[in-house]
Automatic annotation (TrEMBL):
Xref: SMART domains: PBPb (SM00062)
Chief place where the protein resides: membrane
Segments crossing the lipid bilayer: 294-316, 346-369, 457-476
NCBIfam families: HEQRo_perm_3TM
Naturally occurring in which organism (per UniProt): Lactiplantibacillus daowaiensis
Topology within the bilayer: Multi-pass membrane protein
Compartments, record wording: Cell membrane
Top-level division of the source organism's lineage: Bacteria
Keywords: Amino-acid transport, Cell membrane, Membrane, Signal, Transmembrane, Transmembrane helix, Transport
Protein name in the entry: ABC transporter substrate-binding protein/permease
Residue span, ABC transmembrane type-1 domain: 292-476
Sequence similarity: Belongs to the binding-protein-dependent transport system permease family. HisMQ subfamily.
Signal peptide boundaries: 1-29
Length: 494
């Protein structure tokens, strides 16, 4: 009996030591890192979010102005208030949130994110602030056919890639055909057009979609989730101990007063009614106008900057200095051999770690660098297509190499490559859609926002298609006009 008591006492003493040691270690870590101090020093708490996930975060069109609202936004405001700083919301695609956090673009991710084991390897998480189940969205016409997740065996079931729901389908619905998509808007569109049979989402989001779209219905998924990854938490950069402790204190206060259920969800519900009051595309015209403005700005910068850099690269390819020629060739081959989307993310997240640039500037830089590589090859091919006799004739007249290039070769090169340049310029306008991945509010980004806010999938796509067609058609007319003028000019040297 004494041994038993002694054993219990030893076990209790050991447990107390572990708890005390853990508390001391946490306190030491909190004092050693400067994450909280940095936030307070700059006076802002930058919150990364993907505003296409109602009721957590979404945009509304209120009095002609766009505004990001939702349950997570209200929670972010409270956290910032408790820290004594101002909340700054940064819009990104969901796939770009973790890179933005790890590269310091944002201080925290508050976007309905679940603390999965895979995510915990790269970032830290606060305590769970909201716990919900998982629901399955289906078309109302299929209500009798699909009543449980087992009834979806053999059918396509979709979720956002990289989410808890995606993994749950993989693990607990092995008989179904898993389909991953990058945005909530695309998921709903695929469901409504019967490309997939069901979509798995968090209960709050699924309920919001079902309430605002009579063609959809949400059913209980009855998924099993571990305690470690159930619910939603706030993601922080690894080692942000002091900031994590401060946010956890704020979350504890929110939980104690029940503000998420009593205030934040109700506020989000009121904002949802604002969006569904008028879901016409005309009501969202300002969104598309803003998207066109950014698309044209990026395209114009890309065309001008890409043409100048492309010309320089093309001339360097003809340099007699081998290292210069090799360097220009390597640049062109590397850029043409990597996807534009990867280049955009590298400029924003990679170079952005050294020099802090905005998403718009990063997008324009990536577009210029990418288009320059393709334009340089078009220009180089045009220079090579000029009859060598033209250069020889210019030299026989005593013209310098610079004058020959300027007055003989390049004018004929422009005439030869003009149709190819026109095609590249049109492709460049469409390539601007890639910058939406880092949160630039060009046309495709705005399209996704309108889809999420109006619960309409096809109509916003139709509007965007018409806008792109009009822009490209007008550019084609301009290019053809100048092509006719070039064809009527005389050859400089005969």
């Amino acid at each position: 009996m004494k041994k038993n008591r002694l054993g219990k006492f030893s076990w209790l003493l050991g447990l107390m030591f572990v708890v005390l040691f853990g508390a001391v270690t946490s306190a030491q870590a909190a004092t050693s890192d400067q994450s909280l101090a940095r936030v307070k020093a700059k006076g802002t708490l930058v919150m990364g979010t993907s505003p296409n996930y109602p009721p957590y975060e979404f945009q509304i069109n209120q009095h002609g102005k766009s505004k990001i609202v939702g349950m997570d936004i209200e929670l972010g405001k409270q956290i910032a208030k408790d820290l004594g700083v101002k909340l700054v919301v940064k819009k990104l695609s969901f796939d770009s949130l973790l890179p933005a956090l790890t590269t310091g673009k944002v201080d925290m991710i508050l976007s309905g994110m679940s603390p999965t084991p895979a995510r915990r390897k790269s970032v830290d998480f606060t305590n769970i602030y909201y716990t919900e189940g998982e629901a399955i969205l289906i078309n109302r016409t299929d209500q009798a056919k699909y009543k449980t997740k087992k009834s979806l065996a053999g059918q396509k079931v979709a979720a956002e890639t990289g989410t808890l729901q995606y993994n749950l389908i993989k693990q607990q619905m092995p008989a179904s055909k898993l389909t991953g998509m990058s945005s909530a808007a695309n998921l709903i569109l695929a469901l409504k057009t019967h490309k997939v049979a069901a979509v798995v989402k968090g209960t709050a989001s699924a309920t919001a979609y079902a309430k605002n779209d009579p063609s959809l219905i949400a059913i209980n998924g009855h998924f099993k989730t571990s305690t470690a990854q159930a619910g939603n938490a706030i993601a922080l950069k690894k080692g942000s101990t002091s900031l994590k402790l401060a946010i956890n204190r704020s979350l504890a206060k929110v939980k104690k007063h029940g503000w998420i259920q009593k205030k934040y969800l109700k506020t989000a519900g009121k904002y949802l009614k604002v969006n569904t009051a008028d879901t016409s595309m005309w009501h969202y015209r300002d969104y598309f106008v803003k998207g066109v403005q950014y698309t044209l700005l990026i395209a114009i910068v890309g065309i001008i900057g890409g043409s100048i850099l492309g010309m320089l690269l093309a001339l360097l390819r003809f340099s007699v200095i081998k290292p210069v020629r090799w360097l220009a060739t390597a640049y062109v081959e590397f850029v043409r051999g990597t996807p534009l989307m990867v280049q955009i993310m590298f400029v924003y997240f990679g170079i952005g770690m050294i020099v802090d640039v905005s998403a718009l500037v990063a997008g324009m830089i990536a577009i210029v660098l990418n288009s320059a590589a393709y334009l340089s090859e078009i220009i180089r091919g045009g220079i090579q297509a000029v009859d060598p006799g033209q250069t020889e004739a210019a030299e026989s007249l005593g013209m310098s190499k610079k004058a020959t290039l300027q007055y003989v070769v390049l004018p004929q090169t422009v005439k030869i490559i003009w149709p190819s340049l026109g095609n590249q310029f049109i492709n460049l306008i469409k390539d601007t859609s890639m910058v939406s991945i880092i949160g630039v509010t060009e046309l495709i980004y705005q399209l996704g926002i309108v889809q999420a806010d109006t619960y309409r999938g096809v109509a916003p796509i139709g509007v965007a298609m018409v806008i792109y067609f009009v822009i490209c058609w007008l550019l084609t007319r301009v290019l053809r006009y100048y092509e006719r003028r070039l064809n009527h000019t005389n050859t400089p040297v005969a």
